[in-house]
Design brief:
By secondary structure, this protein is mainly α. The protein contains four helices and two strands; from the N terminus they run ββαααα. A hairpin with a 4-residue loop joins strand 1 and strand 2.
Amino acid sequence: MNTKTLGRAGIELPVVGKIATLCADYDIPLLAAAVQWCSRHPLVTSTIPGARLPHEATECMTAAQVEIPESFWDDLEPLARHFELGVDR
C-alpha cells in the first residue's frame, strides 16, 4: 500500500504515512485503528465496515478486537483530520 497517496486521483495525503508509522510504532494494524476510531465517539453505537468478501468481514471483526492503549489514541489525535462536508469547502 502506498501511504502517500489515496484513490485513483492520487491525492497526496502525507498524514496517512504518519498514521501508518504511528501504528507501526505501537504494533497496531492500521485496519484496527481505522475500525476502532469510528466507534470511539460517544454518540456512535455501532460501526459497519464495508466488506465485499467474507475474509474482509473476518479481518474487520478481528481488527475490532485488537487491544489499543489510550496512549495511542492520545498520539493519534493531532494527526486525525476532521473534514467538513463536501470536497470543495
